[in-house]
Amino acid sequence: MRTALGTKYDSATRAVVQLLAERPGLRASGDPAALLTELAVVRVFAEEPGAYDAAFHTCLTAGLRRLPTMRGVVVTGSRQVNHQEGSKFRLQGPMLAVAAVGAAVPGETELLIWTNTARRLEGLLDADRRNDVVLAAHTPLRVLAVEDNRLLLAEEGAPTERALSNLRAAATARAAVDIPHNPNAARWFGALPAA
């Protein structure tokens, strides 16, 4: 992995070493070399989401399992999609999102997602990205509602009424705040499978 990623790997491992110094509990889980590599790969993905090979995704999946989960509403953007209420699908790949209702996201369609399994990246990234999360590849999602250019989604198995109530509250909160332009918002952008 170090050879494949080059300087990106070296930069990411510095951030991981700092994280492990601040959170010694993470060090207690298995082989230190594997831990370092897996978390470095998570950081590389968070900095530059995109297409990577199978070895990268294997390390990414293992690294995400080491991070704490997030339960609540996250937001991301997507190209225009034509999913209808009740549609079910699985994410084709890992997707970055942000657990800050007022965050600017790119794309024609805004996705508000109720998640129980997204992994928090706080501490692994710079302080201005403390609310970033990753939804793992193959996360099953269900469309609870379609409202103009916004999809309200929940992970499969989530209590529908509770999730929808929280998602609508988040949508109302987004409508009530002036969402600033964020030139770095492109990282919170993912492709959903076509309906």
UniProtKB/TrEMBL annotation:
Taxonomic superkingdom: Bacteria
Name the record gives this protein: Uncharacterized protein
Organism: Actinokineospora diospyrosa
